[in-house]
Automatic annotation (TrEMBL):
GO biological process assignments: proteolysis
TM ranges: 21-43
Gene Ontology molecular function: any one: serine-type peptidase activity
Pfam families found in the cross-reference section: Peptidase_S49 (PF01343)
Coiled-coil annotated residue ranges, if any: none
Keywords for this protein: Hydrolase, Membrane, Protease, Serine protease, Transmembrane, Transmembrane helix
Organism superkingdom: Bacteria
InterPro entries attached to this UniProt entry: ClpP/crotonase-like_dom_sf (IPR029045), Pept_S49_SppA (IPR004635), Peptidase_S49 (IPR002142), S49_SppA_C (IPR047272)
Family the UniProt entry places it in: Belongs to the peptidase S49 family.
Stated name of the protein: Putative signal peptide peptidase SppA
UniProt KW Calcium keyword: no
Species per Swiss-Prot/TrEMBL record: Blastopirellula retiformator
Amino acid sequence: MDNGQTPPAPQPIVIKQGGGWAIRIIAFLGWMGLIFAGLIILVQLAATAQYFNEEDGVTEKFYSGDKLASDKIALIRVEGLIMQGEGYIRNQIELAQKDKDVKAVVLRVDSPGGSVSASDYIYHHLNELREEREIPLVVSMGSSATSGGYYVAMAVGDEKDVIYAEPTTITGSIGVIIPHYDITGLLEEYHIKDDSIASHERKQMLSMTRTMTPDQRDLVQGLVNDMFTRFKDVVKTGRPAYVEDPEKLNELATGEIYMADQAVDLGLVDKIGFVEAAIGRAAELADLDVKKTRVVSYTKPTSLFSLGSATAASPTQSLMKAVIDTTSPKAYYLDSSLPALTAGMAAAQ
């Protein structure tokens, strides 16, 4: 029976949960552990892939022609200073060498040269690619193909009409240099003396803190002459006309640079033309229809792991490496007014 009184509101039921914060902390740590473990696994997989990847991430990319064609012309790039034999250039060569669908190679050179050893190493492997695969190799020169850049171009062999230069290409600079700087006068001004202890006086004959003696200069000149002879011998493999007329090669192998039209007149270059002309010539030599051929180039993508890898040197490490490379005795097939400084800084990158 209703007596007019309002019944009391129902009391809420509260369920107490013990240890809520502890559970959340444990769950958070668990998730963090899983994420960390996943990152470790990814890093290990990347390291394993890099270890077994002989091409070091170099991938094929369509350049021109027929995208669906099976026959390929490989465009291999030699750009910038040639300071390392191993690396991107060598990886391109290996990729082309293993690909049986590659029927010809166009070597795109845009380089002022580099160290003697690195230039010779790249030349050797390009020559090996052409000979072992028995495929034509045609050179397309960019803005510069001087000294070591011209050296590697000699991998074309004795085939005719296989070196193309653009109208504004600079080439030549056939020669060798071992840089040496004498700062003894500067040291004397500041009362600094080199007091190094060496096993023999010749150990320091290229030191910038000591004046080179006539005997030491003769020794270094002998090294330069030997490497210069090697350079001219390599030029003769790619320019057989100089075998019959070696004096002509001696006259132009002064370190002088030449414009494209001069280089054609001297026999250093065969034709004036852009990379498309070189591709057309490569297709012709390989008995291919250039319109039904796939031209490919090779790129080296930047991966997530390479951005923070241990191979990226700090500014201090790069500077130290540049200083060491600058002061170390090295010979260069290089067209530059500051060979040691330029090469040292480039090698440190």
